[in-house]
């Protein structure tokens, strides 16, 4: 997961005011507050569990405090609520990712915050992907990294024209986690491989056309949609409401013109072969793609490609266990710290990767990221 700071997105400070969707408290419904703290609001309304990610000034970036509150609440609600709805505070982001800066700064001090965060987050992702009651995510605005993990594994994912999706982890020396190894290789053709390796951003209706969102809604209707959803009781009534508010975008998928090349080139078994195929093409698109890849961590690209190849044959829980092993390896290596430093701390955008080239990333380096952990440290899901 990755948190892209507001400055990096060139968003002015004015957007960080607390602009919440019309609160459901305006409705005359049974409402019960749960303890959540200021960073996340957990409440039951009309026997529906509602999660509001409440860090709008940080684009609702998810941190350890938040996942430690959300996970046990989801476990409880699965047995007590009709369904769960999750949304972000403000009108700019659902969730821009995980607070990896805090993870890196703690790791530099020898602290284990990163291990706690990834373990709890991935456990939460696995629960969402196997949830027994409906799970509805309103992904209005920015949804990246950890925000994708909070939404994409649920039953219903509703995007708007303001939605912006990306999995840009290779840019910070990490890999597309939070179950990325499960959902990305299952997107049409080799689209998921392209999104994972390049960090390419999808906007608006393209998120639904790619198969990441299930519904596309006009953002002006989100408050009304929320009001009607919290009167629902089951999958059937939820689907009826979502179908009522859904709109069809007639424009073709933005990557349609490149889909044949994406499916061909990104089917390469190795990163070296992918580079060769792109170089042989020598089109404007291929040159731009190569330039993008050149900015990514060579280690991240190699482990990401291998991760997706393995994830295509695994279930979600197996993918998350594999990802936790990789996260532990990244916490012990150079590139994750260097990538976060360059993008989010010093912001010079000039990372010094080590190894510096694809050729220097040996098969042993890749294999070490997938090694099993001591039995007591493995991620194990209890559903």
Description:
This protein is an alpha/beta fold and 383 residues long. It has helices at 64-77, 100-108, 113-129, 146-149, 180-183, 191-198, 206-209, 222-229, 235-245, 259-265, 271-281, 284-294, 298-311, 316-331, 334-345, 363-368, and strands at residues 31-34, 40-45, 48-53, 84-88, 93-95, 135-139, 142-144, 156-159, 164-166, 202-203, 215-216. The protein is globular, with a radius of gyration of 20 Å. The protein starts with 30 loop residues before the first strand and ends in a 15-residue tail after the last helix. Mean pLDDT is 92; it is low at 3-29.
How much helicity do the residues have?
40-55%
Largest sheet: 7 strands, mixed
Overall average residue pLDDT: 92
Count of alpha and pi helical runs: 16
Distance between the termini: 23 Å
Task: Indicate the overall shape.
Answer: globular
> What is the CA-based Rg, rounded?
20 Å
Order of helices and strands: EEEHEEHHEEHEEHHEHEHHHHHHHHH
Q: Per DSSP, what share of the residues sits in E-state strands of 2 or more residues?
A: 5-15%
Tell me how many strands there are.
11
Task: Identify the strand order in the major beta sheet.
Answer: 1-2-3-4-6-8-11
Indicate the structural class: alpha/beta
Uncertain runs are 3-29
